[in-house]
Amino acid sequence: YNIGGKPEWEITITELSDIILDHLGKDDSLVTYEDPEPMTTEVKQVNSQKARKHLDHDPSVSPEEGIPQMIDWYEQQYEL
pLDDT tens across 22-67, in order? Predict the structure, then answer.
């Protein structure tokens, strides 16, 4: 199964980076943005139709909400 969120939640790597940096109170001076290689796919689309059909997968947490929750969990688990 290709498990993922909803198509309207697709974000770019830069948007993902921005969510993480914002939650950590950091700026993007810590990041080096490279130009994509010619064959790079800008957005990798998720198709979780099989998971929805067979597993009743129904995501309810957007990346903007879930990524900070994951960071907080990670920090707690690893005592960071």
Answer: 999 999 998 998 888 888 776 667 788 888 899 999 999 999 999 9
| C-alpha triplet 70, 72, 77: angle, nearest 5° | 90
By the 8 A CB rule, do 68 and 24 touch?
Answer: no
Cα-Cα-Cα-Cα dihedral of 75, 8, 12, 51, to 10°? 60
C-alpha of 10 from chain center: 8
DSSP per residue over 4-37, as a string?
---GGG---HHHHHHHHHHHHT--GGG--PPPPP
pTM: 0.79
Q: Are 11 and 4 in contact (CB under 8 A)?
A: no
Residues 6+ apart with CB under 8 A from 2: 46, 47, 48, 50, 51
